[in-house]
Amino acid sequence: MKSANASPTPTDTYAERMPADPPTGVRYHVLAMLCILAMITYLDRAMYGSAKDDMMHAVGKDPALFFYLLTAFQVAYALFEIPAGWLGDTYGPKRTLLRIVIWWSVCIALTGMAGRSIPGMQELGIGFTVLVLIQFFFGMGEAGAFPNITKSLYNWFPATERGFAQGAIWLSARFAGGLTPLVWVLLVRPEFLGLDWRQALWLFAGLAAAWCLLFAYWFTNKPEEHSWVNAAEQDLCRVGKYATDDGGHAGVPWGKLFSARNLWYLCGMYFCMNFGWYFLMYFLPGFMKQNFLTPGEGWTKIVLVALLTGGPLLLGMPGCLIGGMLTDRYVKRTGDRTWGRRLYGMIGFGLCAMLYVLAILSVGNLWLFALCIAMVGFCNDLTMGSAWSTCQDIGRRYAAIVSGAMNMIGNLGGALNNFVTGSVIKYYKEAGQEETGYIVCLSAYAFVYALGVFLWYKIDAAKPLIPDPPADHDSSQGS
Hints:
Elements: H1 26-46, H2 48-58, H3 67-79, H4 81-91, H5 93-111, E1 117-118, E2 121-125, H6 128-142, H7 145-156, H8 162-188, H9 197-218, H10 231-237, H11 254-258, H12 261-282, H13 284-292, H14 299-309, H15 311-334, H16 337-362, H17 366-381, H18 384-395, H19 399-430, H20 434-458
Antiparallel strand pairs: 1-2
């Protein structure tokens, strides 16, 4: 029996309880539903790399100015991460995720009206300025999706399965994002379905709306609220949590959270990750099309380049899952959560820096360049399970807020990437040296990933941001 002054620990092992019945597996159904949401988020964002020319022509602007739309989205997405995370921690992820998905579905549908007037409001035409504003609202609406997915996983999964669950989420996101260039070709090319680009966007918005209906009917915030979950699975899902992790958070200790160096190292690391990664989703399609396709190419070459363009996200799929499983395995075998999360982050970022250098040396060779860039996606995503599991490890009952803070700073890095990359490429394009512009950008990405290795070394996943609760609140005491 623990003394009153003993340091409290969360429930760390499921075996202590030895339930009579095996646990149900509802948490994996929850994971599947959240994986589908992750796929939809990336499908709706990755389509920009393929749709930008049509979208910009619809509003009468040069596609080179498209980075303004990306920056508007990314800035709003970053700024509203923490408020959306707070909503999830306070009111539960179910209500928050429904609001998020409905909001962005409307914005995707409005984006499909670019260059036209809204029905019934003929005086309101969607030109370039309005389109930029819509992208800002799109980013505002989608903000908080992944922090609230993380909060849902925290509620539904034991600590020993966090890396796997986060890896599955990001595997699904990368799968959808990686296939989007190919899906776009199949939807809009006349040789295939031949949809108008607007119809493709409305189809994407409809998929998100359909997900909302299923999610509203079936999902619950916690295992205890779901009728399919037995007592054994409820106990299993409590592993690694305190009893105090369950309530709402009217009095969030903002000062303690944001004065913790651990959080700022985490946020800085994610800034570096997104700055180096967003090129792959938004600018790589244009680079591949410009450098490796010529007018009048047959559909087989078009499909090949589309598949290679999606290579970084497709190879990121196994990277997400492998990285998540490796970090969980390390923690289980050694009990060392610090290096269990840190090690794979440092390895992944270090390899990304080297691969970007190799990509620079391979510009002009389709297969070598595509291989180097695809491996950047794989090595980057080796770190995803560790990064998002660390949010749960150090955030605990404030997991959504901590995830939101990390994702906010990370997406400011993404916004900076969009602006800097777009500006640099535009500058060198006007000077007739567009390839040089890409080389400058790739060099910057390599440097930022190298900086990220140092920041990973400073992150301690075993050090919670908020001190442990008093011993009488220890969930292992049967509260």
